[in-house]
Amino acid sequence: MTTRYCRFQHEGRAHHGRIEGEEVVVLSGAPWAGGEDTGRRVALSAVSLLVPSEASKVVCIGQNYRKHAEEMGKPVPAEPLIFMKPSTALNAHRSPIQIPKASQEVHYEAELGLVIGERLKNADEATAARAIWGFTCINDVTARDIQRREVQHTRAKSYDTFACAGPWIVTGLSAADLRILCRVNGQVRQDSRTSDMVFSPARLVSFISHIMTLLPGDLVSTGTPSGVGRLVAGDVVEVELEGIGTLANLVEMEP
Ligand code: MG
Question: How far is the CA of 46 from the centre of ligand 1 (A)?
Fold first, then answer.
């Protein structure tokens, strides 16, 4: 059985919660850190959802779907290719993506997000699999023109609002073969399955943990399938993962 967990703003305060039907059960803290039921309930329709975890970092994977590596003109990597987005780039469900003035070509990238539930260092794949606490949807928004002309990914991937995550976290799910979709203004642009990944979630988390310590709440974004393309102001972009939900964001110009 799957369970949905969220973070939300209600009456001026941020809370973690467990979604039950049309209500949210308020928790005393992050559920992966022992947060418990407070007994309070609020209507899901009355809260505004926040990014589902306060990640210290977002570790992203490049070229983890064969057809996307092809469309980027890159070989499938022999080992996972990683880069990072700062926590300041995190952006919640329904919060606008802002196109920076420095880019003329901002792209969507629909991705399966992993939420890490415990401190992890030098983990084997079995330990890494157990440390994946849940799954969410991520849009790895990218300034493609900047990415193309630089060797490093940091600038192209790190603008504020470029790490959309949500709308919530789902636990108790197998993510081995989920349909992954991106829609722009209702039109399907990416449509693949997580079974097409080159490296599995457990392999990715184990690999990353041999480089850096993963902390509870950290996010790992597992790469995007083929079909990436441009966003312009006024677009509504949706990332949908089967069994998880749909992350939706409006696009606007940076003020
Ligand atoms: Mg990506």
Answer: 32
